[in-house]
Amino acid sequence: MGCFPGDSVVTTGAGVKKPMKDLRVGESVLALSADGMLRPSEVLLFLDRSETARTEYVTLVTDAGKSITATPTHLVLRWEKPERSQIRHANPVYAKSVRVNDTLLTVVDGSGGKLRLRTERVVAVSRTQKAGLYAPLTVDGTVVVDDVVASCYAVIDSHWLAHLAFLPVRAMAAARASLYGLVWRLGHPLQDAPPSSSRPADAVKPADGIHWYPRMLYAISDYAIPASWMDTH
């Protein structure tokens, strides 16, 4: 399973920087939508999580000093055509496949304090061993980690296919949110909508281990997905 180390930093929906190890299910973090917009995206679950597991990571450093650390088969967004602005030119590739002079998609402060996307060139690639691994899944299937845009997925080299496979998870989350909103409105008939801070979220940190849903997908992948699309090393 592809993951990030616990000291990687995400940006919450409130704009607060937070270590990955402190992230909770139900919180929102900065992500990239399919139409190329930066926006908060709810963490639905952790695909994998361990505070103690030690694993190998790849660190990619850009010419502007940003860096992202991920397991070798985690997908990051490599920008294929730096002169273009369309998000479709961002190609998810394994972190281990990124080379010096490749271009990554990053997030920087723009005018008026508004965040914007920028491409930055990779100037260094290294490997290291670190303890702890965390793999949050957001509604959008992406997450901004240490100001670098990454996919939430790993092991399979198709971000689109992985995101499609988790459609039932997103559907269940949407249904739960709709049901919660309906119940809230029945109890508060004079108010238009529940405050965002009152949305249900796990009060305790997620349990360690691989979530049952990706575990099930792994179990059937040998029969449903060509071996050439997978990389578990």
Automatic annotation (TrEMBL):
One of its GO terms (biological process) is system development. Residues 1-108, 114-158 form the Hint domain. One of its GO terms (molecular function) is patched binding. Keywords: Developmental protein, Signal. GO terms for cellular component: extracellular space. It comes from the Eukaryota. Gene3D superfamilies: Hedgehog/Intein (Hint) domain (2.170.16.10). It holds the Pfam family Hint. This is Hint domain-containing protein. It comes from Aphis glycines. The lineage of its organism: Eukaryota, Metazoa, Ecdysozoa, Arthropoda, Hexapoda.
